[in-house]
Amino acid sequence: MSYKKLVIWQEARQIVVDIHKMTLNKLPQFELYEEGSQIRRSIKSVKSNIVEGYGRRRYKQEFIRFLIFSLSSCDETTDHLETLYETESLKDDSLYQDLHKRLQTLGKKINLFIQAVEKEHKIDR
Fold first, then answer.
1. pTM tops 0.90, yes or no
2. Could you tell me the CATH superfamily of domain 3-119?
């Protein structure tokens, strides 16, 4: 099996693309290198930590550690999104609501995945 088959990775991947496009198309120019840069890095960290953790899945605690990093980056991304919206740099309410909801759902799924790994850890051979 590949990390690409993980639902959490697939959903993170799509949110990476959507947030990247949002920062380029929906934010004021000055935010491109400020909060826009921060949110792009944090959402990419969600996806990258899933991949790195999966690569270390043979070692249960390492796998869990990187999934926790991923969950933390998901929370960080939510915070950046909320800041952009609250400061009115992001004015598209429907886009904000959609991304916020998807980040919350992704966070819940990552958390459930962590719990599943903690409960029963299997290694693909």
1. yes
2. 23S rRNA-intervening sequence (1.20.1440.60)
What is the tens place of the pLDDT at every residue in 77-112?
999 999 999 999 999 999 999 999 999 999 999 999
All residues at 6 or more sequence positions from 75 whose CB lies less than 8 Å from its CB, including other chains? 107
Picking from 22, 47, 42, 17, the residue whose alpha carbon sits closest to that of residue 32 is: 22
Alpha-carbon gap, residue 58 to 33, rounded angstroms:
38
C-alpha to C-alpha distance for 31 and 23, rounded to whole angstroms: 8
Q: What is the distance between the alpha carbons of residues 43 and 1, in angstroms, rounded to a whole number? A: 24
Give the phi and the psi of residue 6 in degrees, each rounded to 5. -75, 130
